[in-house]
Amino acid sequence: MADPVTLTVGSIAALAFTKFLESSAGEAAKQLTPAVLDKIDTLRQAIWAKLRGIPEVDALKVTVEKGGPVSEQQVQLLTPYLDAAMKADPAFAQELRQLASEINQEINIQQGSGGEVWNVIGKAEKNEFIDNKAPIIKDNTGTINISYGQPPA
């Protein structure tokens, strides 16, 4: 998970437009869950509300509202305005960083869900048993004896 402090203004702006980007990020956005898409919409709406009235931002908003693709250059034009707004309003900056961090974490979890994802607190062991005909007994309290056929003497 990306720490909220390490998320750059550019990465926050890119997250806000993930599902509209022309690049592979737009293709990846098709795999996102509705919950993540709702958070992305919330992030984008917060940016719109803060930056309304700026011609480049308003043009980008029109493109998004029409459902058109957004270029990375358009997002880069938004970045200096977003950076200035975040520096001027620390509460706004914290809100965006928190939301972007949640989105980023959920995207990373979804990307890893094809394999094994372990979110474990404390001690954890991975058990790999290859012989599926053998009995599997997991115990760390002592010796376990298994007898086949003959009872123990």
Q: What is the topology?
A:
Elements: H1 9-16, H2 24-29, H3 34-51, H4 55-65, H5 72-88, H6 90-112
Helix pairs in contact: 1-5, 1-6, 3-6, 5-6
Written overview of the protein:
This protein is an all-alpha fold.
List its traits.
6 helices; mainly alpha; 153 residues
Fraction of helical residues: 40-55%
Q: How would you classify the helix and strand content by structural class? A: mainly alpha
Alpha carbon gap, first and last residue: 56 Å
What is the arithmetic mean of pLDDT?
Answer: 74
Q: Percent of residues in beta strands? A: under 5%
Number of alpha- plus pi-helical segments: 6
Rg calc: 25 Å
Q: What kind of sheet is the major sheet?
A: none
The backbone outline, from C-alpha atoms, is elongated
Order of helices and strands: HHHHHH
Low-confidence stretches: 1-5
Number of strands: 0
Brief summary of the model shown:
This protein is mainly alpha-helical and 153 residues long.
